[in-house]
Amino acid sequence: MFSKTQPADLAIFGGAPLFDTIRSISNLVQPDVEQFLSYSKRFHDARQYTDHGRVEQMLERRLAEFHQVEHCVSFAGGFWGLVLSMKCLALPGKTEVVMPSLTYRRLADIVAWAGLVPHFCEVDPATLSITAETAAPCINENTALILGVHPIVNCCDVEGLERLSAQTGIPLLFDAVESVYETYRGRKVGSCGRAECFSMQSSKLFNAFEGGYVTTNDSALAARLRDMRHFGIRDDGSLDEIGIDAKQNEIHAAMALAAIDDVDAQVVRNRDRYRAYQRLIPTVPHMRLLPFDESERCGYKNIVVELKDGWPVKRERVLAILHAEHMLSRPYYFPALHQKRVDYPTVAGDLHATEQLAERFLMLPCGHFVDEADIEQIVALLNFIHTHATEINERYPT
Ligand SMILES: *Cc1c(COP(=O)(O)O)cnc(C)c1O
């Protein structure tokens, strides 16, 4: 039962928080510990803890199968998978990476670590993601790579971007971290573009503590990535490739395998949470739940709502109110990357649509520690904020 009756009951104004413990927007599922230990026993018995051991090899085969793709190369983190893929795929002598500005908050840094320059493009307001139409105007004589980033609900314009890449000769790489479970027009995400990059950091759908991987059907690219993650040492022992130490270790690979074993069950629970939001969000005026495209396979993890025209409380205030109630909601995404101050070069034209969209969306609690009763409380709170908007705005500490 929702117990707040007046604005003074809101935690931000001194009331008791709605939840005793934090409700997160991360998945936070724990793979089965016995599965994890049984995979771990394999490397322990073999006394090989890293350097492409048997568990990591098993993981790479399993992921290649999962994504219906020829090669999977695993990494210590998604970050380094992206950096090294960009280094391999960028057109020689060119510098710019065309990528959305309304996206994952560290993505431009990753491009900078690859020695390249982010060139920010608009997103399509309907999908909140990069499309061929938004990417094309940013392509110029300096373009080295197109970075297609899947948004956190559904997929980006895969076929449009593949067409643009074919027409321009500019390689296409995907950041597919948020679409790990999805299909695009019935095709498993993982074999699109030249390569696709994924993360298994503990807040993602596959929890490997830390980790990442790249999938590709390009054998030469896969071989080069394997060398580069291992100091650049080639199979024949030669060392003429620049590399780093970004190998995945065996215990992380064991955790990843246990996570993959569990993923279908996890997605069913995500779907149940999504269904509850789908049922309840329409009771909140001026709010819209971003729908998953259920003609495709979906992971149903992220819950994103739009504050539509007429929603009466500023988004930053809504977030502060939710935080005080112990809900870790985040804006989707703010600031947009071109609006952030960074100490590396970037290129951006007028990104009017992105700037407007960056004010409108927020992510609501989801994942393992959120149940249907919580969702009822969360939506009751959103209705409460809407109903008492005038008083909230008056009381709000400026
Ligand atoms: C988490 C994330 C990454 C980085 O992955 P790490 O494994 O944390 O380095 C890259 N892109 C997106 C979209 C992400 O959500």
Automatic annotation (TrEMBL):
GO terms for molecular function: transaminase activity. This is Aminotransferase class I/II-fold pyridoxal phosphate-dependent enzyme. Keywords: Aminotransferase, Pyridoxal phosphate, Transferase. It holds the Pfam family DegT_DnrJ_EryC1. Belongs to the DegT/DnrJ/EryC1 family. InterPro entries: DegT/StrS_aminotransferase, PyrdxlP-dep_Trfase, PyrdxlP-dep_Trfase_major, PyrdxlP-dep_Trfase_small. The keyword Transferase applies. Gene3D superfamilies: Aspartate Aminotransferase, domain 1, Type I PLP-dependent aspartate aminotransferase-like (Major domain). The keyword Acetylation does not apply.
